[in-house]
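LOG
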Amino acid sequence: MTISAPIPAQGSASAPAAGSPAGADPFAPDGVVFQPVSSRLITARLLGGGIVSAALVIGFVIPGVLINSGFFIPAGVFAALFVWQLWLIPRQVRAMGYALTDNHLLWRHGVMFRSITVTPYGRMQFVDTSQGPLARWLGIAEVRLHTASASTDATINGLPVVEAENLRQILSRRGEERMAGL
């Protein structure tokens, strides 16, 4: 489930928690500490996007030089898009974080379009970790939490391998303790 309002206090349907201002940031709930993902995810995303952008720029520059035509305009567009990625991707990765509360996993991400997903441990069906070749080289992995509803699945990518495995074990144990989703 994705929310866009503060998490209400226990027993309260919509009132803000005591001591918190009415306009509190719903993406930073009071008393919840979010764990950031690894900054190595920035490298992984830049390498992925950079390889594609570089290939497109080169693909337009070489014919532009050989044919002496207007191929430089698309090359400039792709170069500008890559520079925009250099600015945006680090901000996106710094905005990512997860938090473990007593009954829920919270996952937040996004810069322009922010999102926070709250997944009850009892709704989890299984949790797995995965790692591609680039992630393996960088020492990061992702933890994927699956529920019966595809819309509430959460993927936390960019965690150091040891932290990803530890999180998988914690989520599996808490899911088994609650077993509401099965």
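LOG (cont.) second protein
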Amino acid sequence: MNNKEKKPKSVIKIMVPMLIIVVILGIFILKSNQEKLMADNTGDFALEATAIDLEQLKSYGLPIVIDFGADSCIPCKEMAPVLKEFNKEMQGKAVVKFVDVWKNQSAAADFPVQVIPTQFFFDKEGNPFVPRDAEAMQMMLYSTRDTNQHVYTAHQGGLTEEQLRAVLKEMGVE
């Protein structure tokens, strides 16, 4: 009988450390997955960018707002909190990006940036956004010279929260 009592105790002595190892391994895997999700959330969806891969951003099927400015530009500084808030609020609804063109000049090379800040807008299909009343929204529509194809919709100067919200609403973002 003494031998039978030792057997369950020895099984428990083996099982407890194994369960502890399994729990620790599970926690490690869970943490790793959370860190990966956070890294994904800060990649293409991070506010600040050093380069713009427009095709990659278009692949998400979300409206896109790209603001070209600079950390030391006064209108850009005024717009910075709005962009930060919208980047958080619009996760999964729209892509909101900021590029400091003084630090990352090459990031604006493919865009007709003449002044800062300048924002570019693309609809969820990846096409340049076409506002109902471009003049009222102070939007500039850029087209190619040879085919007259609409390639960019831009706004020069700072946008208030209300203005940006109105643009996003017209783009179908609630």
